[in-house]
Amino acid sequence: MQDIDINTTISEVSLFIEKLQADMPEVFKSGKKTPLKKLLYMGKLYDVNLNRGEQSCITFNDDTFTLTAPNFRQHNLKPVIEGWMKTRAQKTIEEKVKHWAEKMELEFNKVSVKDQKSLWGSCSHKGNLNFCWRIIKAPGEVLDYLVIHELAHIKYLNHGEEFWQLVNSHCPENKKSRKWLNQYKERLFVNEDSNDEENQNSDQPEQQSANRNI
Hints:
The chain has one domain (10-211): 2-Layer Sandwich (Zincin-like), CATH 3.30.2010. The two termini are 14 Å apart. The model is unreliable at 1-10 and 194-210 (pLDDT under 50). The chain is built from five helices and eight strands, in the order αββββαβββαααβ. By secondary structure, it is of the alpha/beta class. Helices cover 36% and strands 18% of the residues. A four-stranded mixed β-sheet has the order 1-2-4-3, covered by helices on one side. It is elongated and about 55 Å long.
């Protein structure tokens, strides 16, 4: 079985972003800073309530995010939001890796969640699994696919026929998840505070098997 080429062209990405700007103006920033109204989490956009308080924090209850900060126009909410997302990503991904590793009868070494811009996930020859924390914004079935994909690399450090047979046996609908990742990958990198630019540090995973368009 050959891997399917689902690379998105620059023009397609541009059209996709233009459509998102029209459909979801609240998650795109103009030159004027505006209060955050929505957050993407596990494949859904949730409302955001803003509260003033001395300490900056974020909570998620009853399908609503609550952001607390001293001053929403001046205070940078990005570290608060990303910190919460990264914590949730680590916990959720670790649980899914343990679940699928048992089903696939595979052993892994450790799971790390990193701030990667070019990779959704990677697997080293030592069985170390790395994931981009932004994948926590994707639907659960997409996250399951990515975990299965990286676990399969513990046995096959390639994208050959045997690799895809293993992936297909545990995730028969994986083409849909791959298409979703390709279609919405730009959306997962949209800035999520009230600032214009997002400054991120890029961690480099162990270079064995790395995947963004997968």
